[in-house]
From TrEMBL:
Domain of life: Eukaryota
The protein's name: Uncharacterized protein
Keyword Transmembrane helix found: yes
Region (Disordered): 231-250
Localization of this protein: Membrane
Keyword match Transmembrane: yes
Amino acid sequence: MTMSAYQIENLIHKTSLDTVGLNVSCLPKMVLLMILPPRVLMQWHIGVLLTYFTVQHSFVLTVITYGAVFGIGVGIAYAIPMACAMKWRPRYWLPERKGLVNGLVVAGFGGGAFIFDQVQTAFLNPDNKEADVVSGSDKYFDQADILDKVPQSFLLLGGCYASMQLIGSLLLVNPPDQSDDEERKPLIEKDKKEEYTANDEKLFSPISQNTTDNMEHLGATSEYLLNASTEENPSQNELQNKDTKEQTEKWSLSPTQVLKTKSFYILWFLYLFNGQGIQFVSTLYKAYGQTFIKDDHFLAIVGSLSAVCNGGGRIMWGIIADKFSVRSALMFSCGIFCISVLTFEVTSLVGKSLYTIYVCILFLSFSGNFVLLPTATARTFGQTYYELNYGMVFTASIITSPVSAILTSNLKSSLGWDNMFFLIAGFSFISVCLSWFFKVEKRSEKL
């Protein structure tokens, strides 16, 4: 059984339920993260595999497995690596580079399409056939040899996801608790003292023993004494780390306190308005390209390049936020996206080259949303309740997803591409204004 081109169109819009599921599970996943090890929460590829069966029998079940189930799974797994990295960061990695650490982690999430766009196109349309069904200004594939491969594609993708998640989850662990380090310290001291005693006995053993061995033992004894002296007199760095930890705990805001701040609502609405543009562009950039580009393989290459920009852009925006400020980075990111969407239609007059440049700029600009908002949350509200606080900010997409589905399925057909570009640019302009009013409290800049 194959799905018609129009069912495929509806499926694209109905997969907004994917994002709804992602965000509905946001707060529960953060609570689970505080209870269970992170690797336990990463095994969520079942929705893609189940779609192999549902897509052959029921459109509604397909929406449930590929939308709700997969979306909830992604929601549970999305922020876990980021939260785990934030736990390692203060004690082990780049303590002053929140943006860079967040960017490095979420870059993989954004860059995955670089591989899987090519995998899907090579599997479904190896002969580079042109979309043959025209509906208004949109084009769709209706060839049987392409649609018949759709169920098997979910097995292929599900198998890839399962393998990658297995490897990743085995490597994903929380940092050791500081209390564990304190408990192990007496045992370490005992071992050092025993080693010192053995070295001392050997050092003053009869002169007939090898002189070189005695010198080595003397060096070991001196090293022990030096280390013991260092531990009795903590270094300046250790004292600074202790002060930083005390400041972090002191200035961290609980979720109930966060809800009383203006900054939370600015971040929440930033996510809401930015989400409209992100979902519109990421869902329909290829559909718009098909209106004047007849090469499906070329569009797949553009999709891969956009994934590179999406992943690399997250690292770039993290570095910018660390070097300047989150506020400046947010304004710059939203401003570039606003201008690019507003002028996106000119690509149809030039062709492939300008279209490629614009798509890359769009993905590069909106990628900042996924690293700047988590970083702003950590800097503004502190580290102690970061998982729950960011989970609350993330819930904005529960509204973004259904609204975006309405825009893409209903308004686009009546407004046309040009007016839709103006509408999305308007949302981004609101985000620029919100970014202007966002400020990180001085007390949390110490975090």
